Amino acid sequence: MNTVAAIDPRHAAGQRWRERVFQAATFIAAVLVLLLLGGVAVSLLIGAWPAFAHFKLSFLTREIWNPVTEQFGALAPVYGTLVTSFLALLLAIPVSFGIAIFLTELAPAWLKRPVGVAIELLAAVPSIIYGIWGLFVLSPVLQRHVQPWLIEVLGPLPGIGRLFQGPPFGIGVLTASFVLAIMVIPFISAVMRDVFETVPDVLKESGYGLGATTWEVIWQVVVPYARTGMIGGVMLGLGRALGETMAVTFVIGNAHRIGSSLLAPGTTISAAIANEFTEAVGDLYTSSLIALGALLFLITFTVIAAARFMLLRLERKALSSV
Amino acid sequence: MSRRLLRKLVNLLALTLSGIATAIGLFFLGAILWTLVHNGLAGISPRLFTQMTPPPGGSGGLLNAIYGSVVMTMIGILIGGPIGMLAGTYLAEYGRTARISAVIRFVNDVLLSAPSIIIGLFVYEVLVVRMGHFSAIAGAVALAIIAMPVTVRTTEDMLNLVPQGMKDASTAMGAYHWRTIMSVIYPAARSGIVTGLLLAVARISGETAPLLFTALNDQFWSGNLAAPMANLPVVIFQFALSPYPNWQQLAWSGALIITASILVLSIAARLVVSSLNPGGRR
Prior knowledge:
The structure holds two protein chains of two kinds. By secondary structure, chain A is mainly α. Chain A is 77% helix and 1% strand. In chain B, α3 crosses α9 and α7 (164-172) packs antiparallel against α8. By secondary structure, chain B is mainly α. The interface between A and B is large, with 94 and 93 residues.
């Protein structure tokens, strides 16, 4: 700083003026983030309005999706979205938990970083790549080796047997769930790993000091301490799975119906939008697709907000315990 | 004794399973990369980078798609990056304790994980419908909206890492806050901010869903930002699902190119950070 700054009033005024402009610019940019979310919500509602006004509540309760007669109901895609995401989590949670344990408690120091980075790279792979891989590599394998086995072994069972009947298409709800599971594993395991690392060493050492095995320390000390954060991570993965588009579009089969079998083709909200939006003719058709988008926004917003809230609470807890 | 044995067995079983889980994760990364290299490498040739996307059965390359992807990603980061940096600066400096900052942080986190197809619909409603047609600029805006929250988050985190003492020293010399930010804080956090930008570029360059209803596609060369523009992700989407072998081959090659670039970017971003703080994990 030169000494002139303190003496020359014109210079000082210029500085003050720039200070004000810069501060205003940062503030405007920050508020833009708020406006953006509001804008998304409002524009989706406006776009969806014709469909909601025309079908009223029946939009949510009907399975029919017929562009020719202009009858649209959201039940099949909403069902598909929820079922694929639920199954994906069912598959992904144990694996992610295992990876997080491996990375925080088991891996030797030299292995931690490369394995951690490799799992993070799995998250960086674009979803369309998962899509073509799922369609051309995974679904033939499932069709030939896994699904016939499921049909044969689980199909005849009472109750859950209904989920595994019908021909092995390869593509369908189960395959989509499988691809989604692979996609969310890196997200959930990254959050779980970070959360596990917030557990104070003193707590773990007390466990070991009492003679507990590694697993007992994990299950009875680490997990209870990190529970909120773990749930937050799972919800974040759920938010990701609910809104995932390209990977699902490739492998779900895009059929607007609710099949009792997990092996049958189905659709999800995002797959329906991705497939049909550019080809949709007629305002009602377009509006119905946007209404699907509004539903997806509502569902994911709730899930993500809950997840962030839980992680935020954990952060405060970690801060206060330091 | 048997109880002790049981506990040891349970421990061994649990730890083995966690090792297997990690192996599963690594296996899928390996499987995907192997498929891409195996199927994509066959189509890698100079033609790929010098010719336009072909009609079914004809020969051609991906030049227009690569060009379109680069252009839209660049514009996206040029819009989203600076806005995100400014917003991150507000959160870390001017509005660190302001009540609105808590709300903005929360909303930004929501945007960070919001489905990209929703952003596509939003830009369609706001830009494409108004303009009356699909356009490259709409695609770039959609990508900017996706890049912004990433930049906000990383900028705030990185600015917070700058030691308070450095800021105080600058203030004590009579510098205004903006001068401190420009001359002290930004330079100190430079590599972190660059990393955030690289990660944002990696994130948006593979995005497909938001481009479907904004930039759409174009089979030929187009330098016109107000018109639809070819881009790698949408070309991969259309070509992979087509029945034509030459299109499918191009889709695989495109997939290889895009994944390789993104992985290189992500690794580069991590190297930048580890050169910043050698002890840090991320």
